[in-house]
TrEMBL record:
SUPFAM superfamilies: S-adenosyl-L-methionine-dependent methyltransferases. The keyword Transferase applies. It comes from Pseudoalteromonas luteoviolacea. This is FkbM family methyltransferase. InterPro entries: FkbM_mtfrase, SAM-dependent_MTases_sf. Keywords: Methyltransferase, Transferase. GO terms for molecular function: methyltransferase activity.
């Protein structure tokens, strides 16, 4: 791809758009403008950011797209009259060095320095524990991507409903399901469980810190013709120190969460801490699904006695912190050595929504 400064556009001003711009600035190849439907700033790297709306653009120029996972992007660009559209995966291939900038952008696992994103000795220990070829191949690809990001090692998300991978042997295979859903959100995963295992659900318990999400969950239950008490919902925060709590301030665009300690806890928005192990023991779950924005490992430490003694099925997230990729599976192996089959699946773009499934070998 041969481009000249001022002779193309970049579409999308989010994380990869910014990473690409930093690389293009480094090689002195800048676009005429960055196009975005809802820009958060007026310029980036000295290049204007223009609203992709009713303006007139130079539609004979190429457009480098930096967005994945949203339907209709290419069609909307074509509708403006552009004919030379470079899709995001092709941008990866043309400018692989831009991915190194993305990998240190500060979002979730993408933390600087990149050298901390792989622990060689622990990844070597984990590598032989994966139960199937798909998990082994994905793990190897993910490690290579972190060490030397490339288009070839970018894993596309698998095409199924999150938390319900079709080729994980024995997943959720119980006569009766007792699910603890930590980070239940609005009940989207519950709906997936109910659709597949409705008659087998003996008990479903949800943990959620946002009141607005609990209200959405109630609406979902109503729309499913289920009573509100079909799910026991607890508004607590697991994975926190005993003397801590969360202050959760909700709004329509983005809720904020802050950890506070004794002496600071006085807000009406406070969510008290709870011990995940005590909660699991109380509800006697045989399935734990958890996604709690980076507190996952600390919560699992709280639950180590229950996991060791009961070996429940685990559906966990590995993408919030760089070290989650190896620390969480190795923790589970240490708690229940040889008792689980481990599976790894990629369920979202940008190596987000990376899911770890630990299935008891007896299932």
């Amino acid at each position: 791809m041969k481009l000249e400064s001022g002779g193309f556009y970049v579409y999308g001003a989010s994380h990869y758009g910014q990473a690409l711009m930093r690389y293009l600035e480094k090689i002195d190849l800048l676009p005429l403008a960055i196009l975005d439907r809802a820009p958060r700033f007026d310029s980036y790297c000295g290049v204007p950011v223009e609203v992709f709306g009713d303006q007139t653009f130079a539609t004979d120029l190429p457009v480098l797209v930096t967005i994945l996972g949203f339907a209709g992007v290419t069609e909307s660009i074509e509708a403006k009259g552009f004919t030379h559209i470079v899709e995001t995966l092709d941008v990866f291939a043309a400018y692989p060095e831009s991915l190194a900038f993305l990998n240190e952008c500060g979002v979730l696992w993408m933390q600087a320095p990149a050298s901390s994103q792989v622990d060689d000795s622990k990844c070597e220990r984990l590598a032989p524990l994966w139960a199937d070829a798909a998990s082994k191949q994905l793990f190897d690809k993910m490690v290579r991507y972190r060490l030397n990001p490339s288009a070839e090692d970018y894993a596309l998300p698998e095409q199924y409903e999150m938390y319900f991978p079709p080729k994980v042997k024995g997943l959720y295979d119980y006569p009766q399901l007792n699910v603890l859903d930590v980070g239940i959100y609005d009940g989207d995963t519950f709906a997936g469980f109910y659709h597949r295992y409705g008659e087998k659900i003996e008990k479903y318990t949800g943990v959620e810190i946002c009141v607005s999400n609990v209200e959405k969950l109630k609406t979902r239950l109503k729309n499913m013709s289920l009573p509100e008490d079909f799910i026991d919902v607890e508004r607590v925060a697991v994975g926190l120190p005993a003397n801590a709590a969360l202050v959760v301030k909700e709004n329509a665009s983005a809720s904020t969460v802050e950890v506070v300690f004794d002496g600071q806890i006085e807000s009406e928005h406070t969510v008290e801490a709870a011990d995940l192990g005590e909660l699991m023991n109380r509800v006697q779950c045989n399935i734990l699904k958890m996604d709690i924005e980076g507190a996952d490992y600390d919560a699992l430490v709280q639950a180590q006695q229950y996991i060791s003694a009961n070996v429940p099925t685990l559906a966990l997230s590995l993408y919030h912190r760089p070290q989650d990729l190896w620390e969480i599976p190795l923790l589970i192996e240490d708690l229940a050595p040889g008792k689980y089959d481990f599976y790894l699946r990629q369920e979202g773009h940008w190596y987000l929504e990376t899911q770890f499934y630990a299935v008891p070998k007896s299932l």
